[in-house]
Design a protein that fits this description.
Length: 121
């Protein structure tokens, strides 16, 4: 039986549990001790939670890239293709700092096809 991870994440958040991925493993911290039953329930749906957290992480990194590119284009006056290439490098550097033990291939999975080509456009 496949279960959407969204209700699982909502249930965790309602209980004051913050979930994230670190080196491919689910980590958590809570505002109060969660019930043993809730932790067992979340563990029972680890695969769905991992997939959902990966999707959320990918969207967050895409947002960081787009925001950085827009700032470089509109505030720094770079052309769009230059702004995107530089934003990719900036976001990649930040990702490496936040994920020191993960291979760079993980960033490519999160970021999509790879860096924009600064020579195009």
């Amino acid at each position: 039986m496949s279960l959407s991870a969204f209700p699982l994440l909502a249930r965790a958040m309602e209980a004051g549990i913050y979930l994230w991925l670190s080196n491919g493993r689910i980590r958590w911290e809570a505002t109060a001790d969660p019930s043993v039953d809730l932790l067992a329930y979340l563990r029972g749906h680890r695969e769905a939670l991992t997939a959902e957290l990966r999707a959320v992480d990918a969207l967050a990194w895409q947002d960081r890239f787009e925001e950085r590119a827009a700032i470089l284009e509109f505030d720094a006056g770079l052309r769009r293709h230059q702004a995107e290439a530089r934003a990719y490098a900036d976001v990649l550097t930040r990702w490496r700092l936040e994920h020191p033990n993960e291979p760079i291939a993980c960033f490519a999975e999160v970021a999509g096809e790879g860096p924009p080509d600064a020579r195009s456009a």
